[in-house]
Amino acid sequence: MKHADLQLHRHAPAHGGILGELYLNGKFLCYTLERVGVAIPADVYQVLLNLSPKFRKLMPLLVSEHVPASWGVRMHCGTKPADSDACVLVGLAKLPTGAKIYKSVEAFEQLMHQLLGFDTISLTIR
Length: 126
Prior knowledge:
It comes from Hymenobacter negativus. This protein has one helix spanning 104-115, and strands at 3-10, 17-24, 27-35, 44-51, 58-63, 75-77, 88-91, 93-94, 101-102, 120-125. By secondary structure, the chain is mainly beta. The chain has one domain (3-103). The strands form 2 sheets. The chain has an 8-stranded mixed beta sheet, covered by helices on one side. A two-stranded antiparallel ribbon has the order 8-9.
């Protein structure tokens, strides 16, 4: 079985957001953005690829002991903290200062293309 090991390295909160970098099996994949105050806790998550009822497409669902699947916490497109309600937003570019990411659709497509090749996926958030 092929396993994907995602690592999210968070930076200190600023401007209402938490920027980070996402790595897949040790290689940089994209930037991330979460909203301060609703970001999920640092933990190890199982990542399930399933159909999102809200977005009506296949998306990563994050599940842990503290974050049940029923919460619907996903990785998806977005460019600013307000685009997230506990979800992890992805993007290929970011501002040097501030809490904003860009090329989110491209990052999400790249993420999904990579993840579809694995049988199991975990995400460690630090």
